Amino acid sequence: MSKLLIVNGPNLNLVGKREKEIYGEISLEDYLKQLKTNDAITVFQSNIEGEIIDQLQQAKSNGYDGVVLNAGGYTHTSVAIRDAILAINTPVLEVHISNIFSREDFRNKSLLSGVCIGHISGFGLKGYELAIHYFQNIQ
Q1: Given Cys at both, which of 17, 92, 93, 111 links 67, Cβ 3.0 to 4.6 Å?
Q2: pLDDT digits (tens, 9 = 90+) for 71-85
Q3: Catalytic member of 64, 74, 96, 134
Q4: Mean pLDDT across 15-27
Q5: What DSSP line would sit under 52-100, residue for residue?
Q6: Residue 22 is part of which domain span?
Q7: 96 belongs to the catalytic site
């Protein structure tokens, strides 16, 4: 079984409280607790770009086989997170709760997709389950 790190970016700590028509009623923390059936999955959330970069840079040395990354708004703005993904040998799978391509124009561009092994968006919180399935059964 793969040891996975799930990294969530800014404002994802508010899922279940904000824009429920987009993100749903359940908190991301509660949903991920349901998925985390063993110690092979670690969840990290930060509203701070540098802390997300630190997690990515330390993923391999901390024994992770893969990273599931929802960088939130940093998806569209962070060259620094993109560079961190390029700098590491750990595969990163990009996940978004909403379909970023059907939202505002500025959300239609991901700076991260081109350096990730894949991209899942638009399936709600189920996208995390799909990403975990990929790492545990396909990769």
Answers
A1: 92
A2: 999 999 999 999 999
A3: 96
A4: 77
A5: HHHHHHHTTTTT-SEEEEE-GGGGGT-HHHHHHHHH-SS-EEEEESS-G
A6: 4-138
A7: yes
**43 sits in which H/E element:** strand 41-45
Q: What is the DSSP letter of 102?
A: G
Question: Residue 126 gets which letter from DSSP?
Answer: H
Set 23, 31, 64, 74: catalytic member: 23
- Please give the angle made by the CA atoms of 112, 115 and 120, to the nearest 5 degrees: 60
CATH number at residue 26: 3.40.50.9100
Q: Which of 55, 54, 60, 26 is CA-nearest to residue 43? A: 55
Res 89 pLDDT > 70: yes
Length of the chain, in residues: 139
Contacts of the segment 109-116: beta carbons below 8 A, 24+ positions apart:
109/76, 110/75, 110/76, 111/75, 111/76, 111/77, 111/78, 111/79, 111/81, 111/82, 112/69, 112/71, 112/75, 112/78, 112/81, 112/82, 112/85, 114/82, 115/82, 115/85, 115/86, 116/69, 116/85, 116/92
Mean pLDDT of the chain: 91
| Number of domain units in the chain | 1
